[in-house]
Amino acid sequence: MSVLRSFSARGAGVILGVAVLALSGSTLASAQMPSPTPVLPALSAAPADTDADGAEAAAADAAAAGPSIELSSTSRDDTLSAAEVEKVAAQPHVSYTGSGLVAAVNGSTVTASVTLKASRTVDVSEIGICVRDSASGNRDFPKDQGGNLPITGRTILKTQTFQPGTYTYWGCAKVNGGWYNVGQAKAFTIKAGATTSTAHVSYSTRDLDASVNGSSVTAKVTIAATRSVTAGQAGICVKNAAGVNQDFVKDAGVTLGTGGRTFTKTKSYVPGTYTYWGCAMVNGGWYNIGEKKTFTVRAADGGRATAGGEDMPADAPGGWTRVFSEDFATAQDKGHFPGVYGAKWRSYHGFPDTSQKGDYDQGIISVHDGALDVNLGTGADGRPKGAAPIPLLDDSGKVTGQVYGRYTMRFKADNMPGYGMAGLLWPSSGTWADGEIDFPEGAFDGGIWAYTHCVGNPQKNCSYLETGVGWSGWHTATIEWMPGRINYILDGKVLQTVTKSVPTKAMQWVLQTGTMGDGPAKGTKGHLLIDWVTVERWNG
């Protein structure tokens, strides 16, 4: 981010490194940070998938309206997502093209295809064919998840049904947390009275319920359909008292039928009253299904978030020597960090993050109830606030690194669209080409990812991992960096071992949060909680 770095939305790709400077004070001042030069293309208006408010379960008009669109084969160069920071100056420009865009209409069924290409191979988190109706409502074909977009191109072929009307469609891809509208746009028309061989579908729910345990909420619902249909997403939708989406993580590509499908999800919420219900996205439109209920999360200890789960290990594993540990046993008021932690921690403060949509502000950090609390939200100046605490590995009072190491943190975060995290190892030299290791990383309304950037060519990822795990529950993430090998470990399980392009020079650890993509809505706020962290030195 701002010379720290940004992180990619839902792990969508290139993560930027951070030039962490040695310092003796408690913050990294903006004067010490080189000014990043935006070179990545900004994103055109995104065909955002949002829930429909007050839609009838079986009404086709339940689809949420998307934003108005402005198509361009390459987007403006004025915006960076929060996954593109310190490496931004080294990132080559990427352009996107589309060809072969065509749609065949058969009654109310439309089959569309397009081939998308990039000027260099890039990772995508979603890719497909975006659609808008005449009222700018989002009617996208189901998108493909993950993979890459190569120079040679990637062909998308999709089929779904539409209500009568005229629709605009085009190729689109989500890269680094932002949507690119690619190539030309065309239109197709469904004539009034057009039918398919399938009957009308209606939806219902049963067994809607939620149980609250402190800040943790577990909700359940069973969603049924009068015939078998495939939902692009389905699950439990939630809004807070201000009407801001606080949904549980939804399942993708699920089949709904007469027997019903049960969804059970758990997530942490800040104190307040929330409305929840069953919901599904079918044929590009959101259906709010069945009854709505409410649950209330009570404030504990003055409304402060609470830590819990798993004790910090007392000893290092075999083959490692403990060089740093912190279980946040001493309280520190918000607005005064590092305060009592000044001998062991530094943080960024007082300058914009890479997206330029938010700022680093160590004033949002506090310690209470055995956890470090990063309280993300909009500041008094109207700008979103993030933070980047940095552990000090020796008693010099300066940010230092080491060659190889084991880095562990126990954490959880609220669902905060537009905010995310990158726990990263960044070269002590400040030279991005020396490598970068990122875990845990991702958008707080998405999942946890891991990335290994290629040594010598860091704008490319030599490995990436989508864990399929969200941020809402307590999790323990570990990077094991050894000669010729990196292990990504989540909750005690090795999910990936990387042997390609393993860094060999000193790196330092930064726990970075901030804005991503188009940034958060003004009312979006919540907490990243860190229960404890440990760092070990490799004994080999």
Automatic annotation (TrEMBL):
Residues 305-540 form the GH16 domain. Gene3D superfamilies: 2.60.120.200. It comes from Nakamurella flavida. Residues 1-31 form the signal peptide. Pfam families: Glyco_hydro_16. This is Glycoside hydrolase family 16 protein. The keyword Hydrolase applies. InterPro entries: Beta-glucanase-like (IPR000757), ConA-like_dom_sf (IPR013320). One of its GO terms (molecular function) is hydrolase activity, hydrolyzing O-glycosyl compounds. Keywords: Hydrolase, Signal. CDD domains: Glyco_hydrolase_16 (cd00413).
